[in-house]
Specification:
Blueprint lengths: L7 H10 L7 E6 L11 H11 L3 E6 L11 H6 L5 E5 L1 H5 L10 E5 L4 H4 L2 H4 L2 H17 L3 E4 L5 E4 L13 E3 L7 E2 L3 E6 L3 E3 L10 E3 L5 E5 L2 E6 L2 H18 L6 E6 L15 H7 L6 E6 L8 E6 L2 E4 L2 E5 L2 E2 L7 H7 L1 H8 L8
Parallel strand pairs: 1-2, 1-3, 3-4, 4-7
Antiparallel strand pairs: 5-6, 5-17, 6-9, 8-14, 9-12, 10-11, 12-13, 14-15, 15-16, 17-18, 18-19
Length: 357
């Protein structure tokens, strides 16, 4: 906690990301802790921070709808006159690619409890991660060739479109922990799967995760799933998951939309992934040790993720990620970003390495 007893990560989110000012009306959308995702101590610390800043605070219980596709009327009814909506609820993440956002600025919080919000994950200045994201975007958009590999056998090559990167989320992410998605149409090769397929956090279906044996690969050709290789039973399980999810939602089964990796050295996941595959999918992705592809659906974020663990990512031979370690000093302007934001430099000097695997 800061000297005032207010969570410093909550202040960073509200002031530097949400842009709240004294006198603003802030609506905090809360998913009750009973659903087992957000901790009960998160909302109170954000409410206290907003009140400390001189804001009028309203709270709405969103509950949890596993397959929500639009902002609930209960939230829309509370929006007029509100300056900012802060989502401490999965609903904000589920609707993060809403193409027609309306009303006040929306911020989605990816810290799941007060301690995480108050750690380096939440306290590295928001502007530092925006600057880092922009530098990474620039490096990849300028590269003639991008190579992705990992120790388990991932081998992907391709080129990012020369056009502006596809739009990221319609809500502001806090913390900002990934670079802009890169369209997958120009990429091909094989992705080493880490023993599972998992949902993207857009919709929560059952089973949300399909366990796979070691040695499984997804084959990518020009932005399309071309099949799987590896043990026969693993291929059957993977294909069954794609058949199930694509049929359930009427999706382009083999579409692979885009990919990106974590850029936040303060992002981690305590314990093992098995304690909550849903929470892992919704929080661990910002660690540089994880790169994920959005698949099973032609629109972002799809419904099934491929996760590459400890990726090496090269842009025209420059190894920006080395076995899961992001090297920001190699980016154009990267050394200046670290100098301008010592909190970010400190986080890179002592990065989180626990990602639940």
């Amino acid at each position: 906690m800061g000297v005032t007893g207010i969570n410093p990560g909550a202040l960073n989110m509200l002031v530097n990301c949400a842009g709240v000012r004294p006198g603003n009306r802030v609506l905090i959308a809360v998913e009750p802790a009973d659903f087992g995702y957000y901790s009960a101590d998160l909302a109170p610390c954000v409410i206290a921070a907003a009140q400390h800043l001189g804001c009028t605070v309203e709270v709405i219980d969103t509950g949890f709808d596993p397959e929500v596709r639009s902002i609930p009327e209960s939230v829309l009814a509370r929006s007029p006159g509100v300056d900012v909506i802060v989502s401490l609820s999965r609903i904000g993440d589920q609707l993060r690619f809403d193409a027609n956002p309306t009303g006040p600025r929306r911020v989605q919080c990816y810290a799941l409890d007060a301690a995480t919000l108050g750690s380096a994950f939440g306290t590295v200045p928001y502007a530092a991660l925006v600057a880092l994201r922009n530098a990474v975007d620039k490096a990849f958009s300028a590269a003639s060739e991008i190579r992705i590999s990992c120790g388990k056998g991932t081998r992907i090559t391709g080129r990012a479109p020369r056009a502006t990167p596809p739009g990221d989320t319609s809500c502001a992410r806090f913390p900002l922990s990934v670079f802009s998605p890169i369209l997958a149409g120009g990429f091909g090769g094989q992705v080493a799967l880490p023993g599972f397929l998992i949902g993207t956090g857009s919709r929560y279906y059952a089973p949300f995760t399909a366990s796979l044996p070691d040695g499984m690969f997804a084959l990518l050709e020009h932005g399309r799933l071309a099949g799987f290789s590896g043990p026969a039973e693993g291929q059957r399980q993977a294909n069954a998951q794609y058949d199930f999810v694509s049929a359930r939602y009427g999706l382009d089964r083999n579409a692979v939309h885009s990919w990106h990796a974590g850029i936040h050295p303060g992002c981690g996941f305590s314990g093992k992934i098995a304690r909550s595959y849903e929470a892992w999918s919704g929080s661990a992705f910002g660690n540089p040790r994880i790169l994920h592809f959005h698949t099973c659906g032609a629109a972002p974020p799809g419904e099934i993720c491929w996760n590459i663990i400890d990726p090496t990512i090269e842009a025209d031979g420059l190894r920006l990620w080395d076995n899961g370690i992001l090297r920001p000093e190699l980016l154009q302007g990267g050394q200046q970003i670290l100098a301008d934001y010592p909190e970010l430099a400190c986080a890179f000097n002592a990065p989180q390495t626990s990602i639940g695997l």
